[in-house]
Recover the amino acids of this structure.
């Protein structure tokens, strides 16, 4: 074992309380950093899974028609150049089957579901609500969403074999005071039809659960008088993170607007990013305090151990040796603190993941959602290391500059 290391351990015992304060701040800083990042990242990832499970990775909708105002002549060529921001959009998709066929060559496309939508009035024995009717092919839609796993009451298999069966959201069911097996009337301007509720789903997204009714595609076409076409295509991707690039290519290839989930949910994604950064800054205060405490402790040791340092220099210890002794002190406390901090973060994250909490609005969960990632621990340890070691360098260098002659003359600075 290095003599410098042993001397550092000896110096540490001279300031136990101060070192324990630095140690406790490092433990809290690292532990809380891990916990806050695990929770904020966990909720963000769960939100993303919810969005992908309800609205898909890419939504292809309106047909693009380039207007004359969106075109100008290329001075070098005879062709016309189109400006994307001046395009005209024609609502709906005229040939959904052709678009679905055109999407198959895209390597990242997992499945496609065509959807026909329209506003209707849902009437139960207690209340009326204006809702959005979604006509789907069940198997296709299950392939691009988590609808099958979002059923909380009723049976999706019963819906599959019932031509006049529907599935409604949990918020809507509560407002209309209905349960699976009950019937409601869906009204349009031209006609009214009675449907049986076969299942109730819950996505956790309040805007969806309170207004969206699923029915069979053919029945939706008949009720809404939309015998051809589709309102939009919901596309599931193998790698959802590539959605922006895929959406751009789809839009250019298919001449229909294509929106990625990152673009649709940009606001919420920015909110989660801000929460991660703000929580990291907040809990890093503990690590900053640990660094300041380490600076103060080492500075006091330098003052109190001036004669000891002079003796070491007289015995042949170099400035680098003295520097190492004081950096070893910071390193020992830092090592113990980060190990204990990571254990605190690990245990704290596990405990929090089992805390019951009921959250609805943008997603639904009954417990805290956490993300287990090694990067959280690496980031916490790096933050603590940088702050503590930077704070330790100044007193360590001051100790290294002490000369035996200056100590004897009383002129050491």
């Amino acid at each position: 074992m290095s003599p410098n290391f042993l001397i550092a351990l000896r110096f540490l015992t001279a300031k136990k309380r101060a070192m324990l304060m630095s140690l406790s701040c490092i433990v809290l800083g690292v532990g809380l950093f891990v916990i806050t990042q695990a929770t904020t990242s966990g909720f963000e990832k769960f939100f993303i899974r919810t969005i992908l499970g309800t609205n898909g990775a890419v939504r292809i909708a309106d047909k693009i028609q380039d207007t004359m105002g969106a075109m100008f002549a290329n001075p070098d060529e005879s062709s016309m150049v189109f400006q994307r921001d001046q395009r005209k959009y024609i609502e709906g998709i005229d040939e959904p089957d052709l678009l679905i066929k055109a999407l198959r060559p895209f390597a990242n496309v997992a499945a496609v579901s065509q959807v026909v939508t329209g506003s209707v009035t849902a009437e139960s024995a207690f209340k009326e609500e204006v809702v959005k009717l979604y006509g789907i092919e069940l198997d296709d839609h299950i392939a691009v969403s988590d609808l099958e796993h979002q059923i909380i009451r009723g049976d999706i298999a019963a819906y599959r074999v019932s031509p006049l069966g529907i599935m409604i959201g949990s918020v809507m069911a509560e407002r209309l005071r209905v349960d699976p097996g009950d019937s409601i009337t869906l009204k349009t301007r031209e006609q009214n039809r009675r449907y049986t509720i076969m299942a109730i789903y819950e996505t956790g997204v309040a805007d969806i659960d309170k207004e969206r009714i699923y029915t069979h595609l053919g029945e939706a076409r008949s009720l809404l008088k939309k015998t051809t076409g589709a309102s939009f295509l919901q596309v599931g991707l193998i790698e959802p993170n590539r959605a922006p690039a895929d959406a751009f290519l789809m839009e250019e290839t298919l001449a229909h607007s294509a929106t990625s989930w990152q673009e649709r949910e940009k606001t919420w994604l920015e909110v989660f990013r801000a929460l991660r950064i703000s929580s990291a800054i907040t809990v890093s205060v503990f690590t900053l305090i640990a660094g300041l405490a380490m600076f103060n402790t080492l500075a006091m040791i330098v003052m109190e151990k001036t004669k000891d340092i002079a003796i070491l220099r007289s015995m042949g210890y170099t400035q680098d040796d003295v520097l190492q002794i004081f950096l070893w002190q910071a390193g020992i406390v830092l090592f113990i603190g980060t190990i204990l901090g990571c254990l605190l973060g690990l245990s704290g994250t596990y405990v929090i993941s089992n805390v019951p909490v009921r959250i609805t609005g943008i997603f639904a969960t009954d417990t805290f959602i956490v993300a287990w990632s090694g990067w959280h621990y690496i980031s916490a340890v790096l933050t603590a290391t940088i702050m503590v070691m930077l704070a330790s360098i100044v007193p360590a260098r001051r100790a290294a500059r002490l000369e035996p002659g200056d100590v004897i003359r009383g002129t050491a600075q």
Notes: The chain has two domains: 3-52+268-409, 94-230.
